[in-house]
Structure prediction request, 297 residues.
Amino acid sequence: MGISSKIWDTKEISPASGSPQAGRNIVVFDNINAITHLKFPVKTDFLLSIVCVEGQLKISVDVTEQILPKQSLMVLRPGHIINSYDASADFKGIFIVVTLNALNGALPSMSKFYPCVLHFLNKSIIPLSRRELNNQLNLYRLLQDKINGGEYPYKENVIQSLCEAVFYETLGLYSSHMEMESNNSIKRKDELLYQFLSLVENNFRKHRDVNYYAEKMRVSSKHLSSIVKIVSGRTAGEWIDSYVILEAKMLLRNTAMSIQEIGAALSFSDQSFFGKYFKRLTGNSPREYRSLNINTK
Prediction:
């Protein structure tokens, strides 16, 4: 398109006088002036949720201008280009920015989210009932309070859990608006991503090789990796690794299985290979991760 765009990094939105508040990989704010210093167009490298409470917000995304009216919700996946925005004088809204790092560590199944995102690719704004709006506001306020509430034990775990709650609440809203129909409007690239994610979700415990999925889908591994990267912002290998690591973390936190048993359940040839794989992707050995995140019920 010939448009030069920079990445909108959450570090560029810094806490100041009540807006916004930054919690590592999660940023929440309700003052649109917090982003007025950005130079557009910008390319998102995060998941962005916008709730319009009052007034309206015009936002130009990719090549389309969209309007969020009062009592509506918009979710943008990573990779969009925001060209401009224009808020009405009476606009009131809330914004939640979640980086890919936070999503990787908190959300167990992004494949459930993508069908909804793809369905609403060109109509990503949905209306909210008064009850749905109140639910969004309550979750936002609680998340904002926990992020901005100083240090306390398990703060990061609490924030991640609230992030999951926001995710599933929003996923439920989009799912309820999505008609059960053959999705002919979804582009071939998006279909390929959804097919790939579905296959990974069902097979990641046994297969971590991109070639396996490419063969199942009857495409080359190079083509698969290229399309997945373009559509989702992550490579096919990164998606596979994220499923494996999330499952490993869940088993380490919530089961009494030994590390050797967990490695075997995930089809690693031996405990050493599993340990090196886990540490390369998380920075901790499985034993270190378990000791830091032991489930204390």
Observations:
- The chain has eleven helices and eleven strands.
- Residues 155-177 form the longest helix (23 residues).
- The first strand starts at residue 6 and ends at 8.
- The radius of gyration is 20 Å.
